[in-house]
Amino acid sequence: MASSQTWLLRPLQERSTQIFLGVLFSALIVVTFLHLFMPQDSALHVSAYTVTLLGKYLCYALLAVAVDLVWGYLGILSLGHGAFFALGGYAMGMYLMRQIGDRGTYGDPVLPDFMVFLNWDSLPWYWQGFDMAWFAFIMVLLAPGLLALVFGFLAFRSRVTGVYLSIITQALTFALMLAFFRNEMGFGGNNGLTDFRDILGFNLRTDATRLGLFIATGIALAIGYIICRAIVTSKLGRVSIACRDAEARTRFLGYRVERVQLFVFVVSAMLAGVAGALYVPQVGIINPSEFSPLFSIEIVVWVALGGRATLYGAVIGAILVNYAKTVFTGVMPDAWLFALGALFVLVTVFLPKGIAGLLQKRKKAQDDDDPATAQEATA
Amino acid sequence: MGILRSLLSLRLASLLALLMAIAAPAFSQTEEDPGQALLANLADASPRQMDAAIEAIVNSGDPRARSWLDAFGNNRLSRNKDTGQVVVVLRNVGRDWTIADPLTGENLGEISRRELDRVNINNAIRGKLEGVLAMLDLYSTNPEIQRTAAEAMMGKVNETVIEPLNNLLAQDLPARVRDRLELAVAIYQLEQGDAQAKADAITTLTGSLHSRARAALNNAVAGDDPAIAASAKAALISIEQKLKMNRAAETLYFGLSLGSVLVLAAIGLAITFGVMGVINMAHGELIMLGAYTTWGMQQLLPGQPGLALILSIPAGFMVAALAGIAIERSVIQYLKGRPLETLLATFGISLILQQLVRTVISPLNRSVTTPEWMSGSLVINDALSLTLNRLYVIGFALVVFAGLMLIMRRTRLGLEVRAVTQNRAMARSMGIKATRVDIMTFALGSGVAGLAGVALSQITNVGPNLGQNYIIDSFMVVVFGGVGNLWGTLVAGLTLGTINQILEPWAGAVLAKIMVLVMIILFIQKRPRGLFPQKGRAAEG
Amino acid sequence: MSMFEQLAKRDQVFEFLAPAASPVDVRHGPILYLEDVNVSFDGFKAINNLNLTIDDGELRCIIGPNGAGKTTMMDIITGKTRPDTGSVWFGSRHNLLTMTEPDIASLGIGRKFQKPTVFEALTVFENLELAMAADKRIFPTLTAIMKPEYRDRIDEVLEMIKLKTLRDKPAGILSHGQKQWLEIGMLLMQKPRLLLVDEPVAGMTEQEMERTAELLTSLAGKQSVVVVEHDMGFVRSIARQVTVLHQGSVLAEGTMDQVSNDPEVIKVYLGEEA
């Protein structure tokens, strides 16, 4: 028991984690303060819209952390993490759908509107239980976790790695997208799930709920970050890096590479699911486009821009790219795909270590100038 | 009825002789064209006299009879209220109608519609007219018209035409026409004939794949006579079996067609991915460029879609190959040995190319014309016809495949490519310019993508998303077939295409696609290196 | 039945209660036993009816020209390649052909690759830490704590492989020879019963070679060591028993002197004319 606590809390003693959490919580507090206490007409007032937008960025940041965990530390480039994100989102969406109750357009007490529209007379079995929050929240972890478990088990067992794995993960999310587009699947088809009313009894359309969701997302990001950090600083984290750099060697040391990969992959998928679950009530809709291969590969470029295998780089990358996307799509929507495409090329060719790499370089240069630390390093 | 009786009384030979003898110039000499009287007679006829009037026209053996009756059937025969002249209405839109002289075909210009009085026709007459016209066509000396008429007879036989048809069957007829007419008569006999005729009819219909033959047999099964019903049932079963075979053949054809598209799309990838180890996510957009080249070529050469298409083959290859070289030089060469980064960078390029097409050309689909010699289909039998454009694509895919095999196996470039693939350092030390080989390989792979685009433009819409739709499938084909193996790509592409088509009818298109994807994921469990893996220590790396 | 009989003998430590550290049964002599092993790649016979026996505590050198099947043999023993036919036993209890690579490694077979393979992103210390004999399942690894005795053991090995000063440097900056040593150090951390060492002295200076020879000979006796090497001088300096592989099967076996005077071996090494 004592040891399990130590490994989980170990990151809190790290300088980098302390800085990260400090910045994150300060940002949460500042935004909350500016939203609640600044007068509406003040330039410093943060509107509810902006709070939700920031909440969305934080969801993406958590998703990026999840991707960085498998890509940065395990060398598995997943081009299908959007699928786990979307599954978590759908689990939350199903809960929110059931919360609508008889307030839908058709006023059916049990069936969501789209099912009434499709003339379904009863709730499919897989929708059972989603009226209970605890069940839905467990499914947020379980649905992506199980998919990752089954998929990962099959893939890692047969030692599918590298680009093969990337392509197969892409095929996975593509297949799910096609499946979720079908009305027969019972997830609202093309339109997905929307028109949500309230969550845990709080009206989703009030500013207070929005702020609450924003803060919850921030806390989820903090916890997710600590979990990832705890894994990568443990011996298992070093084994992951070992798997990434010399898989065969790791195997000959007696580690079951496929199990290490599976464990980290499943944890990552669950984190992605949580990100998706927090995303849905904030944007108010979940539809199959979250499964699109483009979205999944976009996540990877956030991580690449921020810098792989740093975790905090993923957060920086996710927020920067999505902020840029918000700005671009507002000003000149056509140019966004050009910018995104160029970002892919420029980051991979000119900035392989991302922004975090630049930061580390500067820090290192500073350390080298400082004779005390330089000596310490050689000692 | 009377009309056809008289038609019957005319023997075919004498009719033909008549047709030839009474040539049009003969009339122009006479002061009074007999046609004029015939038409006036038709126009004046009361519904009761209509039969006789039509009969008169048919019996006249006038070569223009067909066009008159045709116009009559289509409500185009009118009478000028002033002159009493019977005219054919060429255009009946608007207030003024264009009319022509039915005797000479001369255009008489426009006339107010109020001046015209339509020669009335009722549905009963029109129904008979159809049979009469079909019969007239059956006597035609033009084999094309004759065949079409025979085709049209299916299921249209009624008591009025049965006798002349039997008469006609006694004559010497082209095999296809005879076959059709026999079927048509049999269908009629099965419905209306006596017991013996019905039995004979079933014998004739057995083995026919025509949908009307099946419909007639189905009716017979439901009929009162148990003996007939039983033998009709037996005939149906044998037809059903034959149909199954044909359906299987059709599925196979569609499968091969889809498969050859997949092969075309994937084979360029097999070269760049398999041989060079480069993941080119922009491969789909190179296909798209090939398709847009075809479209552009057709814009340059309006009215000559065939020529444009043929010119597009080298042009599409060049455009895509040049684009490929540009991608290789600008990005991929800097990412050597970093496959995951290459994947991301080329994905970025694919986004840029897509958006470029959207901005420069249009976000909407462009239609590419299919040249005449590629449209239409090859009719094997009543249940099976192969669309020509797909047949061409299958052939094209095979030619491209054979060409690539030749290049890789028999040329200096192929040798150098294989050398560089197996041991880069060694190849370089033997004087092979590895960089040049890289460029050439990439250009080749990209060029083939362009060719795929040219082919795809003939069977699908040309739009900015064209490439995207094929990229995942293409990768699946390469992974399924085994990386670095062109044969594997061929077999995998055709297999996946066929499996997809087999699954589609009972699973639906989307589900079939999902099932194929899942199947590949499971397949990789058994054989992680595809159908045709590279073996040995080198493959372990 | 046999389990019941064992339970009845109360003066004995039950087999299932015995520590799992050394489950290898070498009471019958050999620790490694290969019989009639065949492997072919696309029709090429890499291993051809190979028979080989290594005794417990033996130091065996295996030599042979390129393509003789030395590395493939190691692949088979460590579970990387499955032979087409034949049997491979570790002690008299463990059939290696039914086991996975990590299982074989946990059983006590350590392997050094031909090309030195260390985890370049990790420090020298961490490389050794990962190699250390421990519970290597997921959760124990996740919650593992660096105990002082582990630290001492790692420092001990660091001393042996002369990398103490580079303890906290990433392994990527080591020289070729240092990587070789680090890899040997990782083998030592595993505490294996059998070490398979593929070309340990490639890229080493004369001095380093001597030290490696010393290290390997000192291991023999406690552990069994199989060395594949091209450098004849090195082989001569450590070898007691030498096996010559040629075209996937054993050509000759004996002391270095016996082997180097064998006319067959001379023919293979010097060409047909000699």
Automatic annotation (TrEMBL), chain A:
GO cellular component entries: plasma membrane
Against InterPro entries, the record matches this protein to: ABC_transp_permease, ABC_transptr_urea_perm_UrtC, LivM-like
What GO molecular function annotation could you give as one example from this UniProt entry? branched-chain amino acid transmembrane transporter activity
List UniProt keywords, sorted A-Z. Cell membrane, Membrane, Transmembrane, Transmembrane helix
Pfam name, any one: BPD_transp_2
Keyword Transferase assigned to the entry: answer is no
Q: Which residues cross the membrane?
A: 19-37, 49-67, 73-97, 133-156, 163-181, 211-232, 260-279, 299-323, 335-355
Lineage: superkingdom: Bacteria
This chain's protein is named Urea ABC transporter permease subunit UrtC
UniProtKB/TrEMBL annotation, chain B:
Query: What's an example GO BP annotation here?
Result: amino acid transport
A single cellular component GO annotation: plasma membrane
Topology in the membrane? Multi-pass membrane protein
The signal peptide stretch is 1-28
User: What CDD domains does this protein's entry cite?
Assistant: TM_PBP1_LivH_like
- Molecular function GO labels: transmembrane transporter activity
The family this protein is said to belong to: Belongs to the binding-protein-dependent transport system permease family. LivHM subfamily.
Q: What protein does this entry describe? A: Urea ABC transporter permease subunit UrtB
Species of origin: Marinobacter halophilus
UniProtKB/TrEMBL annotation, chain C:
Residue ranges annotated for the ABC transporter domain, each copy included: 32-272
Q: Which UniProt keywords apply?
A: ATP-binding, Nucleotide-binding, Transport
GO molecular function term, any single one: ATP binding
Question: Please, which domain of life does this record's source organism belong to?
Answer: Bacteria
The record's listing under InterPro entries reads:
ABC_AA/LPS_Transport, ABC_transporter-like_ATP-bd, ABC_transptr_urea_ATP-bd_UrtD, BCA_ABC_TP_C, P-loop_NTPase
Query: Would the keyword Nucleotide-binding be found if you checked this record's keyword annotation?
Result: yes
Q: Does the keyword Nucleotide-binding apply?
A: yes
Q: Which SUPFAM superfamilies match?
A: P-loop containing nucleoside triphosphate hydrolases (SSF52540)
Query: Which Gene Ontology terms of cellular component type are present?
Result: plasma membrane
Query: Which NCBIfam families does this entry report, sorted A to Z?
Result: urea_trans_UrtD
Give the PANTHER family listed for this entry: CONSERVED COMPONENT OF ABC TRANSPORTER FOR NATURAL AMINO ACIDS-RELATED (PTHR45772), HIGH-AFFINITY BRANCHED-CHAIN AMINO ACID TRANSPORT ATP-BINDING PROTEIN (PTHR45772:SF8)
* Listed name of the protein: Urea ABC transporter ATP-binding protein UrtD
Q: Organism source for this protein?
A: Marinobacter halophilus
